[in-house]
Amino acid sequence: MSENIRLAFQGIWNHKMRSFLTMLGVIIGIASIIAIVSTIKGTNEQIMKSLIGAGNNNVTVSLKQGSSDYYMDYGLPAGISPVSQDQMDRIRDFPDVEDASFYLERSWEGNIANGSNALSSGAVYGIDTHYLGTKGYQVISGRPFLDSDYPAFRKVALLDETAAGALFPEGGAVGGTITVRNEPFVVVGLVKSSAGGPEINSLMDYYNYAQNANGVVMIPDAVWPVIYQYDEPQNCVARAVTTNDMSNVGKEVAEVMNESVTGYSPAEASAEQDAETADAGAEEGTDGTEAGTEGSASGNAAITYRAEDMLEKAKNKQELSASTNNLLIWIASIALLVGGIGVMNIMLVSVTERT
Q: With a threshold of 0.85, does the pTM exceed it?
């Protein structure tokens, strides 16, 4: 054995160029395959992360009219009642749902202030006790809402760091008082999201995800009617057990919540959503300037609960990149073939010399 090893190394040493070319052929072939496979996998994961967020398996189910969110300041939608406690319990009992929160929302609220300091177009959420955990918020100062805050109808608030910086530029937000539509709320805590969020790379991404960039104010859902309306239908954010469960969770949650919609027909809603998905696919790649006019275009559409299926969008984007991936695979295959031909030629030369 030792003699064979010695002869092998001696052969390599005596034919340095030939050995180098053989190694180069093997390296080119293997490296090209590894590089291309890694690139494809990295691209797919980046698409998934950009749309879903790292480690954040949340699915949002909200009222939509056509392809747009229904804006509650237009008035309560006819024939839609608030989600009942029984519906909430059934949703939380789904085996693929880790937790779920039911909340009320104003994505763009221009009347939030602390004296002369105002929060321009911040988001206001009326939340339950499950919201912070489901969304991945951590309390970094002060306290969260207590169970006793809800039956006592305490007008307390939580701020994220952006809202706290705008409303209390000199610090001291906890214990301070803010007004939302001229109603005073005492700030009891500051929160920060610990979950990764979608990356904003286009104008359409901004319309979809950037409403929280101007700051977030959270209040107990029990006091929501003090500044807004009674009996507003809630939205739901559900955390799926795994990323692959997200699509199924969205459908399950939407189906239960649509029991609150009078005259809801699953077949009609599915057909309408399929049509809108096809329209959205046709518009893929635009700069999103139509986003501001979607509401008027869908004014006559039915109002139903629907999930924002980010997993499906990620898969669609991955399918769009499939042609590029196939091209890369062909390039890697050619590189492997070239490397193999090089090795074959070197071996042929070696055999020819010996004979």
A: no
